[in-house]
Design brief:
By secondary structure, the protein is mostly helical. The protein contains three helices and six strands.
């Protein structure tokens, strides 16, 4: 569902920029396509990359007598690091947990934080760019 929304937003923005800008300004077309591609690519990398899920192979549970319950997750049965957190949506422990993202449907953590930041920056730039192009073209085409 979220991929459909992101695809729709970038497609509409692309059509706005391509259809309302003068034909001689190819820079708008190239920039629109480049930013759309960057937005979709960073979204896909964020959605498909492992966020840093802690597994028993990487972090085996300690001996039951020696467990420090501050650094142990009963639900996942793994030893947690200080920066890990148990996500109640995914039912997994994620290293350097940031949040559970409803757009990607997964946690944002150590493994996918950088592509998520690129995704946020590119989609923010894309929205600002679409607004500027739309306003400028409305001013160009509505002036007598």
């Amino acid at each position: 569902m979220s991929l459909i929304v992101i695809g729709f937003v970038t497609t509409v923005g692309t059509l706005i920029a391509v259809n309302v800008t003068p034909a001689e300004t190819g820079v708008f077309h190239i920039l629109t396509i480049a930013v759309s591609a960057l937005t979709l690519l960073s979204f896909l990398v964020t959605a498909l990359k492992n966020p840093g899920i802690l597994t028993q192979a990487k972090n085996p549970p300690p001996d039951p007598a020696a467990r420090n319950y501050e650094n142990y997750c009963d639900k996942c049965d793994v030893a947690k690091t200080n920066s890990s957190f148990h996500c109640s949506d995914c039912e997994l422990c994620v290293e350097e947990f940031d949040h559970h993202c409803p757009w990607t449907g997964k946690c944002i953590g150590k493994g996918n934080l950088q592509p998520f930041t690129i995704f946020l920056a590119s989609i923010s730039f894309f929205f600002i760019y679409a607004i500027i192009v739309s306003v400028c073209s409305c001013l160009l085409y509505t002036s007598p």
